[in-house]
Amino acid sequence: MGPMAGIPDRVRRGTPWAVVFRAAARNAGFTLIELIVVIALMGIMLFFSLPRLQGNPFVDDANKSTRWLIGKISMLRENAVRNGRRYSLNLDLDIGRIWESSAAMTAEELEQAALNNSYTLPAGVHLVDVEFARKGKQNSGLAQITFYRTGYADKVLIHLQEDETYRSLLIEPFLSDVTVFEKYASFDD
Hints:
Elements: H1 9-12, H2 16-26, H3 32-54, H4 61-83, E1 87-92, E2 97-102, H5 107-116, E3 119-120, E4 125-132, E5 136-138, E6 142-147, E7 156-162, E8 165-171, E9 178-181
Antiparallel strand pairs: 1-2, 1-6, 2-3, 4-5, 4-7, 7-8, 8-9
C-alpha cells in the first residue's frame, strides 16, 4: 500500500487533484530542522521572559494582600455611590483583620461581619499603621476608612510590611485608583 492507496485511479492519473494529494502525501510532517528552529525560538523567548516572572506581582503574600485591598477599596467606593449609603473599610491593626461595613448595618450585623466576613492577612504580612491626612497615624486598634455616597473617601495611606519590605497604598478622596508605593510613604514626604 502506497501513499495514494484508497484514491481512485482517475484522480491518481493526472487530474489537478492528483498534484494536491501527492504533495500532501510527501509533506505529512515537520522536518527536523523546522522543529529545532521552533524549539530554539521558544527557548530564547523563555530566557528573556523568566527574569520578568521572578518579580511577578502575583506571587508573594504581600502582593496578594495588596491586590485584595485594591479590589475591596474599588468595590466599596462603587457600592457607596450605587447604593447611596456610606461604607467603611475596617482594619484591625492588632490582629491584621480587614472587613467592610455599611451605615445601614445593625450592631449584630457589624459583629458578624467582623467575625465571619473578614480577610485575615497572611502570616508574614502585617498592617504597620494607617495614616489619615487629617487625623494623623494610627498604629493600633481599629482604623475605619469611610467611603461616602457622593463618591469621595477619606485620604489615607495604608502601610503593609512583609519581612523588611514596606508597601504603602494611597487612597485619594476623589480619584478612583489606588496608588501603590514600594516603600513606607508618608504625607510629610
